[in-house]
Amino acid sequence: MPSGQDGQRVGFAQLRWHGAPACVAAERPGESSGCYVAGDWHGRSVAQRLKRAYLAQMRARGSDVGWLGVWERNPRAIAFCRKCGFVEVGARVFAQGRDLQRKSYGQAGAGLCSDRAPVR
């Protein structure tokens, strides 16, 4: 987990290894179910460090594909996911109170979960 100069946590990623939607084509998928960086630390490569760490965990657990869900109203996260090689493979609509919202599912190709994964 990345930390700031004073040792405080500045971000975290939550991983899961079950329950991938049908649109994710994988035998052993690994999910990044959450990746968060403290606001003061945006733009300082913390998310990149988290991505490298969680892809390494996925490799270590034998995942052949990494996937995640991203909320349609989070353009920063969408841009980051695209930059990291995730492509949209499906979506679902969910209710947030009375508001219907959309979450897209992104999948990183097998190459991103291989030992030769590009570091961007």
TrEMBL record:
Which InterPro entries has this protein been placed in? Acyl_CoA_acyltransferase, GNAT_dom
Tell me which domain of life the UniProt entry assigns to the organism this sequence originates from. Answer: Bacteria
One of this protein's Pfam families, by short name? Answer: Acetyltransf_1
Question: Boundaries of each N-acetyltransferase domain copy?
Answer: 1-107
Q: What is this protein called?
A: GNAT family N-acetyltransferase
